[in-house]
Amino acid sequence: MKEISINLSGSKSISNRLLVLNSLFHNSLQLQNLSKCQDTYMMERALSSKEQIIDIYHAGTAMRFLTAYFSIQENRNIILTGSHRMKERPIKILVDALNQLGAHISYVENEGFPPLEIKGKKINHNVIHLPANISSQYITALCLIAAKLDKGLTINLEGKITSKPYINMTLQILNKIGIITSFYQNKISIEPINEVKKQDFIIESDWSSASYHYSICALSKDLKIRIKYLFKDSLQADRKIADIYQKYFGINTLFHENVITINKIENFQYPNFIELDMNDCPDIAQTVAITAFGLRIPIKMTGLETLKIKETDRLIALKNEIEKCGGNVEITDCSFELKRINSFRENQIIETYNDHRMAMSFAPLQLLFPLTIKNPNVVEKSYVEFWNDLKMYGIKH
Ligand SMILES: O=C(O)C1=C[C@@H](OP(=O)(O)O)[C@@H](O)[C@H](O)C1
Ligand SMILES: C=C(OP(=O)(O)O)C(=O)O
């Protein structure tokens, strides 16, 4: 059996939260294993920028978290902008919430979308209501600045809460650095604090990046993959990949100290049909869809209402590209169903629509049949070493 060892960099979600907190709390945190990805670079660059126009390119977390961050930087006026796609990703819920709290944010081009003009000022109010069904990043953005407000913040969430583990991640990070929070039913409360203690924070590696190695393991003949610095008890939503692949795709995960090993379970009985709610972990929907396609297992995923406002409309992108390769897909606004898998159509050119996860989720299919991934460098948004790591499996771009 071939054994491969992979070293991933830190979680992009954890890294981008900690960078904002570090900036708010005078660099009290000594961060280790920070993500090397482009979205984290964009966050670092924005936080140290002295410019008036700050461009965060494709980074959703940077756009949302920095909107809140800059709104409380007194005496600083900036324009926060991003890529063409970022200007299509909605931000009104967060802007309305911050303005209701006392911030001064306006739209430079289209109402409800970046770019934003943010006039930093002291925020006076400390209770807010906002819809929770569009993006958890709006809620995280508010949580990150909450302890810096004089009276802290109470956030009342309305409707279904999407991507909830990401909110839990934010609150657990706040707790770890000494900020008191509570999250009960639909109400989050965060207490004010002036300073946090000087401390080290070691960032767990990125489970979303690990998901592509799970897919490779599932589509390979016989592989054992070791991935460093991933934990059973993780802050990350996409840790769920281990459970999904164990249950449906026959991949066993062993958690050792500081490292996991994954391999195929012998004589695994694959299901005839898979049904999954992905509302907690939207970023691995593409990985799971492609593994199911490669293994020829029909699958229905629900809870995907946020996929259409990510780097691209991921539901349409998945349908288009899977159908090119021989699948039959039906989508709605919030679901994806791979109904039939005909014979694989080789040598297709896979469009990536500027979405890193389209490139990375389709790449493992090359273990089964040849295909070409267009604009392979999009992977840098979250996983700079992706193609280098895939060379170890003989997968090239
Ligand atoms: O808070 C975070 O770090 C993230 C939250 C999720 O976004 P939504 O809450 O918009 O689904 C996820 O898709 C994104 O990649 C990262
Ligand atoms: C959706 C993603 O990122 P963001 O929303 O932060 O741009 C992602 O990484 O899949």
Tell me what you see in this structure.
The protein has 397 residues and is an alpha/beta fold. The chain has 2 domains: 191 residues, Alpha-beta prism (UDP-n-acetylglucosamine1-carboxyvinyl-transferase, Chain), CATH 3.65.10; 185 residues, Enolpyruvate transferase domain (UDP-n-acetylglucosamine1-carboxyvinyl-transferase, Chain, Alpha-beta prism), CATH 3.65.10. It has 12 helices and 20 strands. The strands form 6 sheets. It has a 4-stranded mixed beta sheet with strand order 1-12-14-13. Strands 3-4-6-5 form a 4-stranded mixed beta sheet, covered by helices on one side. Helix 7 packs parallel to helix 9. The longest helix has 13 residues. The mean pLDDT is 97. The structure holds shikimate-3-phosphate and phosphoenolpyruvate. Shikimate-3-phosphate binds next to helix 5. This is 3-phosphoshikimate 1-carboxyvinyltransferase. One of its GO terms (molecular function) is 3-phosphoshikimate 1-carboxyvinyltransferase activity.
In summary, what is this structure?
The chain has 397 residues and is α/β, with parallel strands linked by helices. It is 32% helix and 23% strand.
Which keywords apply here?
single chain; 397 residues; alpha/beta; UDP-n-acetylglucosamine1-carboxyvinyl-transferase, Chain; 2 domains; four-stranded mixed β-sheet; binds shikimate-3-phosphate; binds phosphoenolpyruvate
